[in-house]
Amino acid sequence: MQITFLGTSSGVPTRARNVSSVALRLPQRAEVWLLDCGEGTQHQFLKSDLKSSQIRRIFVTHMHGDHIFGLMGLLASCGLAGNVSRIDIYGPPKLNEYLQACRRYSQTHFSYPIKVHTVEPGKVLDDGEFAVYCQRLEHRVPAFGYRIVEKDRTGHFDVKRAAALGIPPGPIYGRLKRGEAVTLADGRMINGSDLCGETIQGRKMVYCTDTIFCDRAIELSEHANVLIHESTFAHQDAELAYQRLHSTSTMAAQVALAAQVQQLILTHFSPRYAPGNTIQLKDLLLEAKAIFPNTLMAHDFYVHDVERATA
Prior knowledge:
Mean pLDDT: 93
Largest sheet: 7 strands, mixed
Cofactor: Zn(2+)
Low-confidence stretches: none
Number of domains: 2
Distance between the termini: 19 Å
CATH class of the largest domain: Alpha Beta
CATH topology of the largest domain: Metallo-beta-lactamase, Chain A
GO molecular function: 3'-tRNA processing endoribonuclease activity; identical protein binding; zinc ion binding
Subunit structure: Homodimer.
Keywords: Endonuclease, Hydrolase, Metal-binding, Nuclease, tRNA processing, Zinc
Order of helices and strands: EEEHEHHEHEEEEHHEEEHEHHEHEE
Organism: Adonisia turfae CCMR0081
Strand order of the largest sheet: 6-5-4-3-2-1-16
Shape: globular
Structural class: alpha/beta
Radius of gyration: 22 Å
CATH architecture of the largest domain: 4-Layer Sandwich
Number of helices: 10
């Protein structure tokens, strides 16, 4: 699992930061899952090492423009390229209505199937290898955070040991690799888990934006390997955060601390903290690290590998 930040500004783009979009690359399946799609996201793809032809799923948090205005353009470009087989889109009510209106008035026709799924709190999907959950956050419009969970996998299968036990190679190995108990032709029962190493723990990534501090964000983020959380405002501007239902750097850190996550990555920064201003983004990072030391600050095209939890 590898995260690429395609946009880390809030509200409007700046010279250095585009608006919200995060790509999750799944190399083992040659897929890219997108979280939000602000205006200009397709241009950010062109500047990155990602391939738009690998986009399979898009998760939209809410219907504000800095999170969806790039969606129609990206989908249309993928269609013109003709190398996308299918895209599933997940998001709040009215998302499908919005996309249908865009298609109708622009007379855009896709050459590949698109399925829009309206999400509700709980499990969004389960494809056997990954499960995705969402939770309602606290914002001015219906907004959802997403939790992407890689399922645990059976550990390394010891082929030499299996051969030493006289287990014939073939389909039976596949069953043993999955940890199943198998009865051999000679009557012996072999437990596959005895021939496999330690279970490989799945990784968990959580994406929370836009939201003020809330208990549901903590619940969604519990024990995540990586929590990506909005940090629109500095602690000094907490009153603005409460007015606009956004988070401060300290609120994001408090969520990470309460949820006992492994890594916090801040994003979605207000342009008011540009270089030369009284408060700058480095100050937001220091504020967060004072509460949750293992905090990073994202920038456009920052790539982060999601590490498995260490004992």
